[in-house]
Amino acid sequence: MLSEQTIRIIKQVTPAVAANADTITCKFYQRMFAGNPEVKAFFNQAHQQSGQQPAALAGAICAYFANIDNLDVLGSEVELIAQKHCSLGVKPEHYPIVGKHLIDAIKDVMGDAATDEICAAVGEAYGLLADVCIGRENEIYDHLQNQPGGWNGKRDFLVERKIAESDIVTSFYLKPADDGALPTFLPGQYITVHLDHPSTPTSPRNYSLSDCPGTGYFRISVKREVAGAAEAPDGVISNYLHDHVGVGDVIALGPPCGEFTLDVQSPLERPVVFIAGGIGVTPLLSMAKALVAAGNKTPVYFLQAARNSGAHAFRDEVRGLADREAPVVTRFIYDAPLPTDESDGKCDDVGLVTKEYLAENTPTADALYYFCGPKPFMLSIERSLNELGVDSDRLHCEFFGPKQPLAAV
Questions:
Q1: Is residue 45 domain-shared with residue 94, that is, in the same domain?
Q2: 400 is in an annotated binding site
Q3: 20 to 30 Å CA-CA from 30: which of 21, 166, 193, 343?
Q4: Range of 362's domain?
Q5: What domain count does the chain have?
Q6: Is 101 buried (19+), middle (13-18) or exposed (0-12) by CB count in 10 A?
Q7: 208 assigned to a ligand binding site
Q8: What is the pTM of this model?
């Protein structure tokens, strides 16, 4: 427990920290990578260059400080952090490194305002959060290691198949290189790919598992991102996977992790609506296929938005959901269809997934909603569902990259 004095100090400095949070986190990463370069391997450098990672950390710090006397409300955020850390192999000994550089960054930015008393309070508050995260991470590590086929850290996998799903999406079917067992996973979880790429060595990337558990393989489906400049490494790993990783190659993976999941073994009392935008289809397809495979009887709606048939991945797999006994409705929506897409029946509708479209095609009164896609897409979906009166506890979404508030777009 934090002392009353620490809680009081943190509350007093929260406005000043919030006003300087972006500057503090940018300074923090600069200091940490310079002083402890060994931790750089845990970070996606594309997210560093884009500013997503510093912005996400700034938001997390502000949320923690603002709720310093009511930490129970941060349970979901702690779970997100713990799952991410376990996917990367973060250990307890890394936490003091972060704490040191965070306090030093606050001193750098706030100057004389960062008194010894304030720094001591920040250190105590950080220590409590570290203890909570480490405790949860130990539980996750134990589960990952001790389940059949489980592991921690990295494990070599063989690329068994490589399948083009669209003009821009390719699936990789992966099996353990040691022919050992595969652990199960929860639909919606991701694995971490570690590649020693020349320009971003050991830079990790999380990819959602795009098929359901129990297949005998892991499948990731990778969108080819537009490659950025050398100093902005967007698309480096996705292009490398598309162009240089093929059948028979071996890549290192972290174990399945992630908190954006759906328990398909428990009876569902509400309809479930999946809304996918672009490559956001991957975790949702895993969930939907797992629901159907489990003999689910609740109504399922799968709305998939894409640019056109060239960019549309998993058309047949999504349509195939409705071929089983489970009550599944599928709809494809293109916002920039090719000339023959409509006449060839490749899409059901043309346009955007609007509030009116959701009201007409989904049971907004009682359904659970799971959505994933580009941030503007998710912002639009969340706003539309809010306006339709869908309670926040029925909304579930996944970010590809560091989590940030949707309203920040």
A1: yes
A2: yes
A3: 193
A4: 272-408
A5: 3
A6: buried
A7: yes
A8: 0.91
The CATH number for 187's domain is: 2.40.30.10
Q: How many residues does the chain have?
A: 409
Give the CATH number for residue 87: 1.10.490.10
Distance of CA 288 to the CA centre of its chain: 18
Q: Is 373 annotated as a binding residue?
A: no
Q: Are residues 103 and 23 in the same domain?
A: yes
Residues assigned a catalytic role: 95, 137
pLDDT in tens, the chain (409 residues): 889 999 999 999 999 989 999 999 999 999 999 999 988 888 776 666 666 777 778 888 888 888 888 878 888 888 999 999 999 999 999 999 999 999 999 999 999 999 999 999 999 999 999 999 999 999 999 999 999 999 999 999 999 999 999 999 999 999 999 999 999 999 999 999 998 776 665 578 999 999 999 999 999 999 998 765 443 456 888 999 999 999 999 999 999 999 999 988 888 889 999 999 999 999 999 999 999 999 888 999 999 999 999 999 999 999 999 877 778 999 999 999 999 999 999 999 999 999 999 999 999 999 999 999 998 999 999 999 999 999 999 999 987 655 555 443 3
Residue with tokens 């056109």: 308
- CA-based nearest residue to 164, from 84, 221, 245, 234: 221
